[in-house]
Amino acid sequence: MGMMREFREFAMRGNVIDLAVGVVIGGAFGKIVSALVDKVIMPPIGLLIGGVDFSKLAFTLKAASVDAAGKDVPAVLLGYGEFINAILQFLIVAFAIFMVVKAINKLHKPAEAAPAAPAEPSEEVLLLREIRDALKK
Fold first, then answer.
1. I need a labelling partner for 100 at 20 to 30 A (CA). Which of 52, 60, 74, 82 fits?
2. Beta strands 76-78 and 72-73: pairing type?
């Protein structure tokens, strides 16, 4: 039972729970960004460059054919359009994370520095104090 108790203590630490929440929210955010890129950003860009659907862009390495048994052999494609979409999704996610980190850093105030100790008085000041004290006597 010692291992179960140790695991429960590990799992209930704040950092582990925060990480789990971050992973779940990150997955949902990834789906939002995918939909944004695929359905909102790329169609107008494709329209501007001549009605191209980026997700369908591909180089045909080997054309589709029919083998000797009469079965269809699909084409071998190099789908660079999906790669372009993935790059845009990455850039959007990276920019969003950058903005969040920037906002957090702005909110996080640096710790106030301890007040500096007063500087030692110069020799002239010490000498003048001695003279003053001597005159008081």
1. 82
2. unpaired
